[in-house]
Q: What sequence folds into this?
C-alpha cells in the first residue's frame, strides 16, 4: 500500500478504510490492553493518533517505542472520539524503523530557543520550528507565484563575483590559492588565483539584475547573499536570502508601490495557505502578531523623507542610546521608534543623504540626497532597502570618481548607461527578516535552517 501523508489524511472528507502512514512518534501512552501514539510526519502541525491493541503480534516490541522513534503504521481509519482531530488510526500492523534512545533531546518538555539552536539538526521536529520551516517553504513559492502573475522574469545571479555592489567591503573572499604558498610568498598574488583577479561571495545580485532589467524589462532574483559584517545582532546573519526585484521604466514611487504590494501579497498568502502554522505563531510565539498582521494587510504604509524622519526623532522625547543627527545612518532603535511608536505601521523612508548610500543611487535635484528608499517595519526595523538607480552616465561616473571606485571594474555596468539607458528601480528584501515579521520569531537564527553568524558554523 502507498503511504498517505498526515496532512492529506486529515483533510479528506471521506477517508479510505485503511491507510499506511510513516512518521516520528511525538508521545506514547501505555495501558494494559492498548497503547496510544501521537505520530507526526512533518507534513503539517497536527499529529495523528494511533491506537495499538495488545493483540498485535509484536505488541511487546511496540511497547518499547519511545519519543522520537520512527514507525510505519498500517491501520483502519476510524472517527476519533477525541476532540481536535477527525480521524485516528486503529493499528493493524506497526513496523518499527528505529527506536530513539533516551538520549533523544526532544523529550516532552518545552525547550528554550537558545538550547534548540545548539541542536539545529533536530529542531525542525518541534512544533514551532516545523511550522517556521513549512512557512518558509510556502513563502518562497509565493514569491515566485507573485512575480509570475505580474509577468516578471526570474533571474539567477552569480554567487561568486568580481565587484562589490554595496561598496561596504564586507565580503567573503573566494580563492583557490594554497594558504601555505601564500604564506611563503608573503602576499596573495591574485593574478595566480582561480579567476586571475580578486573575487568574493556576492553581497547582492543587484548589479547583474540591473543588466537584465534593461533587457527583459521586469526581473527578480531570489537567492543567497553573504556578508562578512561582524554584527552579532538578532537581525543579522552572514548568509541570508535576498529577494531583489529590478524594474525598467520605474521610478521611486512605483518602486514603493511595488514593495507594499509584495509585502501585502505574501502576508495574505501566508494567512490563506498556512492557517494552522500561523495560528501557532499568533497564539504561542507573539501575542501581538495578529494585530500586526492586520495592520500590515489593511493599512496604507506611511511614506516620509529621511529629513522628515530626523525631525520626528529629534522632537521625540525618547532617550536614544545613539544620538540622532542629520547625515548619519539611522540606528536600529531609531528605525524601530519610527515604525513602532510613531507611525505604528510600516513606513518607507526616502531621499537619504548621498554620503550614507552606495554609488548607484540616483542623485536628487538638490545635489545632496539620493532617491533611496528603506522600508522600516514594527518589530524588525529595516525590511527592504532599495532605490531608483542613477541612469545618467555622466552623473554616475562623477559619483564613482568622488567615491574612489575602480571604474575599470565596472566597465560593463557603465555600458548599460551608454547603450539605451533608461530610468529603473529596485530593492532588496531580506527573506529571513520578512519571515521574522510574519511569524513574530524575534531572532533571525530561528527562521533559517542552519544559521551562519560570527564565530559559529557548527552544522
Ligand atoms: O539594504 P541592503 O544592503 O540593500 C542591498 O543590498 C541592495 N543592493 C538591494 C537592491 O537594491 N537590490 O540589503 C537589503 C535587505 C535589507 O533591507 C535587509 O532586509 C536584508 O537585505 N539584509 C540582511 N538580512 C539578514 N542579515 C544580514 N546581514 C542582512 N543585511 C541585509
Ligand atoms: Mg540597507
A:
Amino acid at each position: 500500500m502507498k503511504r498517505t501523508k498526515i496532512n492529506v489524511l486529515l483533510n479528506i472528507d471521506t477517508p479510505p478504510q485503511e491507510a499506511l502512514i510513516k512518521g516520528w512518534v511525538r508521545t506514547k501512552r501505555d495501558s494494559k490492553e492498548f497503547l496510544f501514539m501521537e505520530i507526526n510526519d512533518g507534513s503539517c502541525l497536527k499529529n495523528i493518533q494511533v491506537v495499538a491493541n495488545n493483540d498485535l503480534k509484536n505488541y511487546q516490541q511496540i511497547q518499547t517505542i519511545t519519543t522520537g522513534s520512527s514507525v510505519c503504521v498500517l491501520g483502519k481509519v476510524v472517527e476519533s472520539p477525541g476532540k481536535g482531530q477527525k480521524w485516528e488510526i486503529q493499528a493493524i500492523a506497526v513496523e518499527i524503523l528505529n527506536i530513539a534512545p533516551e538520549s533523544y533531546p526532544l523529550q516532552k518538555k518545552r525547550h528554550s530557543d537558545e538550547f534548540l539552536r545548539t541542536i539545529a539538526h533536530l529542531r525542525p521536529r518541534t512544533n514551532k520550528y516545523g511550522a517556521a520551516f513549512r512557512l518558509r517553504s510556502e513563502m518562497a513559492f509565493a514569491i515566485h507565484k507573485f512575480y509570475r502573475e505580474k509577468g516578471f522574469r526570474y533571474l539567477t545571479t552569480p554567487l561568486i563575483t568580481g565587484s562589490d555592489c554595496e561598496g561596504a567591503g564586507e565580503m567573503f573572499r573566494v580563492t583557490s590559492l594554497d594558504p601555505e604558498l601564500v604564506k611563503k610568498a608573503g602576499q596573495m598574488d591574485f593574478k595566480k588565483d582561480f579567476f586571475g583577479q580578486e573575487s568574493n561571495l556576492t553581497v547582492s545580485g543587484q548589479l547583474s539584475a540591473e543588466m537584465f532589467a534593461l533587457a527583459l524589462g521586469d526581473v527578480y532574483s531570489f537567492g543567497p547573499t553573504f556578508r562578512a559584517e561582524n554584527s552579532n545582532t538578532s537581525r543579522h546573519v552572514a548568509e541570508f536570502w535576498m529577494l531583489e526585484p529590478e524594474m525598467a521604466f520605474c521610478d521611486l514611487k512605483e518602486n514603493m508601490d511595488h514593495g507594499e504590494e509584495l509585502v501585502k501579497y505574501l502576508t495574505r498568502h501566508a494567512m490563506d495557505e498556512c492557517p494552522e502554522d500561523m495560528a501557532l505563531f499568533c497564539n504561542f510565539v507573539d501575542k501581538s502578531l495578529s494585530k500586526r498582521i492586520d495592520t500590515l494587510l489593511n493599512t496604507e504604509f506611511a511614506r516620509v523623507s529621511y529629513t522628515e524622519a530626523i525631525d520626528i526623532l529629534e522632537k521625540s522625547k525618547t532617550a536614544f542610546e545613539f544620538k540622532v543627527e542629520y547625515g548619519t545612518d539611522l540606528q536600529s532603535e531609531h528605525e524601530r521608534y519610527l515604525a513602532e511608536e510613531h507611525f505604528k505601521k510600516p513606513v518607507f523612508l526616502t531621499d537619504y543623504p548621498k554620503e550614507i548610500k552606495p554609488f548607484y543611487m540616483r542623485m536628487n535635484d538638490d545635489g545632496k540626497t539620493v532617491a533611496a528608499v528603506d522600508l522600516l517595519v514594527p518589530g524588525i526595523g529595516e525590511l527592504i532597502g532599495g532605490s531608483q538607480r542613477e541612469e545618467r552616465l555622466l552623473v554616475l561616473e562623477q559619483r564613482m570618481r568622488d567615491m574612489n571606485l575602480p571604474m575599470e571594474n565596472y566597465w560593463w555596468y557603465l555600458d548599460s548607461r551608454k547603450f539605451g539607458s533608461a530610468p529603473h528601480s529596485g530593492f532588496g528584501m531580506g527573506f529571513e527578516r520578512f519571515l521574522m515579521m510574519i511569524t513574530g520569531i524575534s531572532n533571525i537564527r530561528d527562521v533559517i535552517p542552519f544559521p551562519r553568524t560570527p564565530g559559529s558554523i557548527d552544522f
